[in-house]
Specification:
The structure holds three protein chains of three kinds. By secondary structure, chain A is α+β, with helices and mostly antiparallel strands. In chain A, 24% of the residues lie in helices and 35% in strands. The chains are: A alpha+beta, B mainly alpha, C mainly alpha.
Chain lengths: 358, 285, 270
């Protein structure tokens, strides 16, 4: 999977792209190449600038400085209706006064394509997206959430865009349907072979679908990589926290290991990169385990089981070590045998932890 | 991006026609009135010697009586309407359900018929041998005095004319109270009265206050009720202004009176309106 | 909260609202009765029922001229008001821009202003400009009050308008004009239609602004007022009842049209 893009030419290049509102830089000098046919996801919390970035890419907002190159051509000043790109909106923005068919055909009508060809293409897209043919004359407001998603996607595909943008279209959908649609979207990406650029605040969603992920924070791209890279090798505390439940211990480098001032102990860690003086040690809940003896793992801490949370196939335990709270995650089959308030020994191996900067 | 769209972003561009129209059609006439209030009495020339003479004349005249009547009647109108309209507004927001639209239409319809004509209808109802007294006479042989051309009927006319102006903002206000918040208050042990006082009233206050303001301001400037129903027994301030402009042909004096009324109205409107965010009242998500 | 006292309160609210509606329509009933007698003077209970005065009133040439003037004013006001108010409403509720808060309050001011004073101020202003009063100046005067009302009515629809619809159409290749024609206008249509209805009816029934600004032209409400103070004539109840019925029918038709459009929009097929 990681080699998926090798040898492909970039379709979209961002050079030092910046957008300022007054003195505030919503998007701050972003450099990025996106390959033809790639599924690229930009992840960030609200206010990180991802929506502003997307709006610049679609032509609904104009860059303050820097360049956007589409197949090598500068498109900074091209408005949205002149760009060969199209977006699926967060609200979907389906035209409520139009039928499913009319929504899909909108761009073709604007281009002046004759009605018979329009209809043929619309029905083709509906079939591809598994929308029943009799929905052609159905009012969009009468469609279910999942159907509306497909209509919005069909409408965007009918525009024959070079790049399809997605502005968190799944955020308002319930969990189960969202999971189905995520996979469907990835299938459609394969079928069409088009470049998809997706933004979301959920790294989990990004992981499922993307070839590569870019994490944004305060207007900057802080890390770009494959889902695998982002998951296993986050570079900063921010990125590692974004992935989900993690245990983070503030540390400073001390010889070959590190010390954790809050725990008052020295810990074994992976070798610190050159110039790394202080930061955080990240340990995933599933890398932590309950120990019989301190020697069973590279690092061991004694604490008290405070609570347990059952997450279906897995169970999490909150273990308090002094002031610090640790989350330990076990498969159901390997559940902790003791009871709440038991004193326990937890530990992990140095290879399962990651050193990150602030 | 062209220079034009940078100078005139969409919001400003769309507002422009309306702003220009209001400058010519609303602000300019008001400035004309203010200017006229300073020229010598009974002149029509704007460029005569400006002075405060008209205002002095107003303060030395009996206009304060007219001001008093207008303010008093307006206050009474607001008070009565508050009591009359609240249950209806509450009904429109919570009780009437699918009937609410039709009932709203029924309250809107009278707004489209000339005020004078509708007030004249009250004469048909209350006059001797009219609908009310005629019925009493023929059914019970009882002949009470007609209340036509009294201050009481004037007040009734004002309550009648300005009712929708209290009702609609109030309904907007009452619909702003989330039902769940009321339920929560009941659930926490509040009585019906406590829910009204602690939840309904404060949360619907913006709409209620705007209703108060609108009815008060319009009622202070009322004239038709006194003319049609009051038989000139009371002279409201708008009548004094009209007389100065028409029969007396004394535009400067009329302008001075109008400026005083405008100051009163403008002052009230500005202090009340600046405290409200219209978006929340009119329903922006 | 027990359901019996709750039901009683609901019943009381219904009863109170019904009483208030009756109160609102008492004068209309009075006018209707007064217009349905054949005698010269109104005496209740009516001795001789009849619609002679309706016939006499509506064949009068003078009345035809009044209708023409009123219609010319209300028609012009509707067209101009809707255009300015539509853009005004977009500025009021659609766009976020610096000065929007002040703009919203400026829009409200003329509504919060005594109309008699506004009419006189306009008279004075037109005079200062050297304009001759006629039905055209009355159109202008009506607009000062009706544009803000119309803007508010349309704004309520604009508040529920998703701006992403316009962006989506633009993104799909439509020009600014196509976006306006294909998306903005049709989606806002119910609000625009209500605004037009309000504009027409409010202009048709207006008296205080017309009084000082029509000059030699006379509108229906002005005529009715002059007849009213000149002494009783059954023509006044006739025209009053006709106005009420006319406004009622227009409002009902408009309401049904909007209900129909809404139903068609949410139904399948188009």
């Amino acid at each position: 999977m990681t080699g998926i893009m090798t040898g492909r030419s970039p379709i979209l290049q961002l050079r030092n792209l910046t957008k300022t509102f007054g003195s505030f830089a919503a998007v701050n000098s972003i450099d990025l190449d996106i390959a033809e046919g790639e599924f690229f996801t930009i992840v960030g919390p609200s206010g990180s600038g991802k929506t502003t970035l997307l709006r610049m890419l679609t032509g609904m907002e104009f860059a303050s400085s820097g360049d956007i190159l589409l197949r090598g051509e500068r498109i900074n000043d091209l408005p949205a209706n002149k760009r060969p790109t199209c977006m699926v909106f967060q609200s979907l923005a389906l035209f409520p006064h139009r039928t499913v068919g009319q929504n899909i055909e909108f761009s073709m009508k604007i281009k002046g394509i004759d009605p018979a060809r329009r209809k043929a293409r619309a029905l083709e897209l509906m079939a591809q997206l598994r929308l029943p043919e009799n929905y052609y004359a159905k009012n969009v407001t009468k469609c279910s959430g999942g159907e509306r998603q497909r209509v919005a996607l069909a409408r965007a595909l009918a525009y024959e865009p070079d790049i399809l943008f997605f502005d968190e279209p799944l955020s308002a959908i319930d969990y189960k349907l969202r999971k189905t649609l995520e996979k469907e979207l990835k299938d459609i990406h394969r079928e069409t072979g088009k470049t998809f650029i997706y933004i979301t605040h959920s790294l989990e969603e990004a992981m499922v679908m993307s070839d590569r992920i870019g994490v944004m924070r305060a207007g900057r791209l802080v890390q770009v990589g494959t889902p695998q890279e982002i998951y296993t090798a986050p570079k900063t505390k921010f990125v590692s926290e974004f992935i989900g439940d993690v245990n983070i211990i503030a540390v400073s480098v001390n010889g070959s290991g590190v010390t954790a001032p809050t725990l008052g102990v020295g810990l074994k860690s992976p070798p610190a990169p050159a110039g790394f003086a202080a930061g955080h040690l990240v340990v995933r809940p599933e890398s932590l385990r309950f120990l019989e003896h301190a020697g069973e793992a590279d690092n061991a801490l004694s604490g008290r089981v405070y609570n347990e949370y059952v997450l279906g196939s897995r169970i999490q335990y909150q273990v308090r070590v002094g002031e610090q709270v640790f989350i330990v995650e076990k498969l159901r089959q390997q559940a902790f045998a003791g009871k709440l308030d038991d004193n326990v020994l937890i530990g992990w191996d140095a290879k399962d932890s990651i050193l990150v900067t602030d | 991006m062209s220079i034009l769209s940078r100078l005139l972003p969409p919001g400003r561009r769309h507002a422009l026609p309306l702003i220009l129209f209001m400058a010519v059609g609303f602000a300019a006439p008001l400035f004309a009135v203010i200017a006229y209030s300073f020229v010598p009495a009974r002149t029509f020339d704007l460029w005569a010697d400006w002075s405060f003479d008209n205002y002095l004349e107003v303060f030395n005249s009996t206009s304060y009586i007219a001001f008093g009547w207008s303010l008093g009647l307006a206050a009474a109108t607001v008070l009565i309407l508050a009591l009359v309209c609240y249950p209806v507004a509450f009904g429109l927001a919570r009780v009437f359900g699918k009937w609410a639209t039709l009932i709203t239409l029924l309250f809107t319809l009278p707004l489209f018929v000339s005020e004078n004509v509708r007030l004249y209808g009250w004469i048909m109802v209350f006059i001797k041998n009219g609908v009310l007294l005629g019925t009493l006479k023929s059914l019970f042989g009882w002949e009470p005095d007609s209340i036509v051309f009294t201050p009481e009927l004037t007040l009734l006319g004002m309550v009648y004319v300005y009712l929708p102006f209290m009702l609609f903002p109030m309904t907007l206000g009452v619909s702003m109270v989330p039902q769940q918040t009321r339920d929560a208050a009941y659930d926490l042990g509040a009585s019906r009265w406590q829910v009204f006082r602690e939840v309904d009233l404060p949360l619907s206050m913006p709409g209620i206050v705007i209703g108060f303001l609108l009815t008060f301001v319009l009622a202070v400037g009322a004239i038709a009720e006194a003319k049609v129903l009051g038989g000139q027994r009371i002279i409201p301030i708008a009548n004094d202004i009209e007389v100065a402009f028409t029969y007396a042909q004394n535009w400067p004096l009329g302008s001075a009176l109008a400026v005083l009324l405008m100051l009163l109205v403008g002052f009230l409107v500005l202090i009340v309106l600046r405290r409200f965010d219209l978006d929340t009242i009119l329903g922006r998500r | 909260m027990n359901s019996r006292s709750d039901r009683m309160i609901r019943a009381l609210i219904w009863a109170w609202a019904s009483a208030i509606i009756l109160f609102m329509y008492l004068p209309a009933i009075g006018l209707l009765l007064a217009s349905s007698t054949s005698s010269r003077y109104f005496i209740f209970p009516i001795q001789r029922w009849g619609f002679d005065w309706w016939q006499k009133t509506f064949v009068s040439l003078e009345i035809h001229q009044l209708f023409k003037t009123s219609f010319a004013i209300a028609g012009s006001v509707t067209v101009i008001a809707v255009v300015i108010a539509l853009f005004g409403a977009l500025a009021f509720a659609r766009y976020d821009w610096k000065g929007r808060g002040i703009f919203q309050k400026i829009v409200l001011l003329p509504i919060f202003f005594p109309q008699t004073v506004l009419g006189l101020a306009l008279l004075l202003w037109f005079n200062a400009l050297g304009l001759q009063m006629s039905w055209q100046t009355a159109v202008f005067a009506h607009l000062v009050w009706i544009i803000p009302v119309c803007t508010l009515v349309i704004s309520i629809q604009v508040y529920s308008f998703d701006p992403a619809l316009e962006e989506a159409a633009f993104d799909l290749g439509a020009s600014r004009f196509q976006v306006f024609r294909e998306v903005t206008l049709p989606v806002l249509f119910p609000g625009i239609f209500s605004g037009a209805l309000f504009a027409f009816l409010l202009s048709w029934g207006n008296f205080p602004l017309s009084l000082y600004t029509t000059g030699a032209d006379t509108t229906l409400p002005e005529y009715l007022y002059s007849k009213m103070i000149a002494g009783y004539t059954p023509g006044v109840p006739v025209l009053g009842t006709a106005s009420t019925l006319g406004a009622g029918i227009l409002l009902l038709c408009g309401y049904l049209l909007i209900v129909y459009l809404r139903r068609r929009r949410s139904a399948d097929g188009a």
